[in-house]
Design brief:
The chain contains 20 helices and 26 strands. It is α/β, with parallel strands linked by helices. Strand 13, helix 13 and strand 14 form a beta-alpha-beta unit. The longest helix has 21 residues. The mean pLDDT is about 90.
């Protein structure tokens, strides 16, 4: 039986390859695991409990947790198999944002993890008509505990409802983080998500019995779909957070995963640590480290060294790269990165070191996968986001004429495309376009198709709405420029500016640890980040980086001026100000421009 509804996957695992350790996490100072049988049992008890609370098909519940955990996934399956719509929310957003989502979706119950979530949700729920109660995933005095609503009284009703649910029915409403304005509720059906999961089965480099680690927010469709995919493939899932990944006592060392999904920024942080350790070496060890690192410059996915080259790579692998693999647990067979563009350098370095990294592309509206680089060398290509998934069609729309030849907006069609935006038919209509009788979804991204062998690979070049137009009428795509500059370990974050200006400039946030190390090696006294960015030697250092990178771009795209910033950009703020990043770490360009408008204006004062 091929699953057709999201909840079918737990029964598929039970029938085809049940696990003693299906879901696990570190809880109450120990590693705790649930078998497939326990997973199914708890899901059914929770479904029956939801019915006893009075929930019926079409009602909506909220799920929120700071750290991924089995209970979140169990409640997801439990709600879906009785037709209750799941509204996952980010734990980091404010009570006012919760209030907007709860009112728009019309939620009646919330199930939350630890931290301040109960308080934030409670504050928002007080002004939401029809909201009934909050349950916690952790026992807390005076709070309703989620297991207390378990029931054994409605098994037949659960079975009746689950059998009646059709694949095309609404399963979840996911509110996009958005870079401007209120979030939109993306409506995804069972079929939307299931089609993506089944298409990914042939791509995963691992199978039944292997271990995956899940630490990206499961409320985001990328990690949620990935986690359900692991269930489908009988892969053990261990849920963790990002706070204790590395080091001898970190989760990577404890779990030793074979596969995980990530975002580029986390890969960059791992690389920064590796690079800084190399800088701290001395003598022959330091020379060996940077010699091995230099070998990766010529790496491609289909690279196959021979002769003397083969010997060099063998030495580098044994003495250097093997240690990198050990730092990630020693068993990684694949990593998939998504949610934001990944610098080619990261893909190249990790893959060259025997840690295969591939990039995927998609949106919440596409459940999420549209394209994924395969783990076979001939089906992957650095600098692209891979070929389309099975069942997905990609069309490059050049019709508005703002693009270079062969480039245009990326349009998509397939069974994974959303039902629409909840309560916003006008917004839904804006993102669909009919071409030659076929309905296409407008991604808002700009790209081109690159041919390799007999396969078309998608290359994303920018966001349509993020194109800058200089005062001279020239269009500039900021994302590729930012991505290339961020390959330098001294740059943590960067945003290109220059809309309606004579030339292009940049706001740059230095990588603090790397800059401290550089200062130590170059007799520059470190005081604080706010002081050091005014240091002449430090500014000359970044001038050299800009001078080195600029020739890789056309004259109009080159950075003429820049401003170093002391404060890192974050997805959450404790001081009540707007965060500079979305929860998926995308730049909120409008927020950044407003926050640093004085710094930006100063760069153009004498131009």
């Amino acid at each position: 039986m091929t699953p057709t509804r999201i909840f079918d996957f737990i029964y598929y695992q039970k029938t085809n390859h049940p696990l003693q350790k299906s879901l696990g996490y570190f809880h109450l100072n120990e590693w705790r695991y649930f078998s497939t049988d326990e997973l199914v049992q708890r899901v059914n008890k929770a479904s029956q409990g939801l019915l006893e609370l009075g929930l019926k098909p079409g009602d909506k519940i909220v799920l929120a947790a700071y750290k991924n955990r089995p209970e979140w996934m169990m409640m997801d399956f439990a709600a879906l198999q009785i037709g209750v719509i799941v509204v996952p929310v980010y734990p980091t957003i404010s009570s006012s944002e919760y209030e907007y989502i709860f009112k728009d979706a019309g939620v009646s119950y919330a199930f939350v993890g630890s931290g301040d979530l109960y308080e934030k949700v409670e504050k928002a729920s007080k002004v939401v008509d029809g909201f009934k109660s909050i349950y916690t995933f952790d026992k807390k005095e005076g709070k309703a505990y989620w297991e207390d609503m378990y029931s054994d009284n409605n098994a037949e009703e659960v079975s009746r409802i689950s059998k009646s649910i059709k694949p095309e029915e609404l399963a979840t409403i996911i509110y996009t983080s958005g870079t401007t304005g209120n979030p939109k509720g993306v409506m995804l059906s069972h079929e939307n998500i299931v089609s993506n999961i089944i298409a990914v089965k042939e791509i995963l480099p691992i199978g039944a019995g292997k271990i995956c680690m899940s630490f990206l927010p499961i409320c985001h469709i990328f990690e949620r779909t990935a986690s359900i995919s692991y269930v489908y493939n009988s892969i053990e899932i261990v849920f963790t957070g990002t706070d204790n990944l590395g080091g001898e006592n970190g989760d990577l060392a404890a779990i030793k995963p074979h596969f995980f999904t990530t975002v580029p920024r986390l890969l960059e942080k791992v690389y920064e640590k590796i690079y800084n350790k190399g800088l701290a070496l001395s003598g022959a060890k330091k020379k060996l480290f940077f010699w091995a690192l230099g070998l990766t410059d010529d790496y491609s996915y289909d690279f196959n060294p021979t002769g003397l080259n083969s010997l060099k790579w063998s030495i580098a692998d044994k003495l250097i790269f093997s240690k990198w693999r050990a730092a990630l647990g020693g068993r990684v067979e694949g990593i998939l990165t998504g949610a934001a563009p990944c610098p080619a350098k990261m893909l190249r370095i990790f893959s060259a070191a025997g840690i295969p990294v591939r990039e995927g592309y998609g949106l919440t509206e596409t459940s999420p996968g549209l394209t994924i680089g395969r783990y076979e060398a001939d089906k992957s290509m650095i600098g692209t986001v891979g070929p389309p998934l099975s069942g997905v069609e990609i069309y490059i729309d050049e019709s508005d004429g703002l693009y270079q030849e062969g480039e245009g907006e990326v349009l998509a069609a397939g069974p994974n495309i959303m039902m629409g935006y909840y309560n916003q038919p006008d917004k839904t209509a804006e993102v669909f376009k009919e071409i030659n009788g076929k309905k296409w979804f407008l991604t808002g991204d700009i790209g081109r198709l690159v041919r390799k062998g007999n396969i078309d690979f998608l290359k994303i070049t920018d966001r349509k709405k993020e194109l800058l137009k200089t005062s001279g009428g020239k269009y500039v795509a900021p994302a590729p420029i930012e991505s290339k500059f961020k390959e330098d370990f001294l740059i943590e974050q960067m945003m290109v500016v220059g809309d309606k200006k004579k030339f292009v400039s940049a706001l740059i946030v230095p990588a603090e640890d790397a800059l401290k190390e550089w200062c130590s090696c170059n007799d520059v006294k470190w005081t604080s980040m706010s002081d050091i960015i005014t240091n002449d030697n430090v500014n000359k250092l970044y001038e050299n980086i800009v001078t080195t990178k600029n020739p890789q771009f056309s004259k109009i795209e080159q950075i003429k001026k820049f401003k170093l910033l002391a404060e890192s950009w974050e997805p959450t703020k404790t001081d009540g100000t707007d965060a500079e990043l979305t929860p998926t770490l995308k730049l909120k360009r409008r927020v950044i421009r407003q926050k640093y408008h004085k710094e930006i204006d100063k760069m153009y004062e004498t131009s």
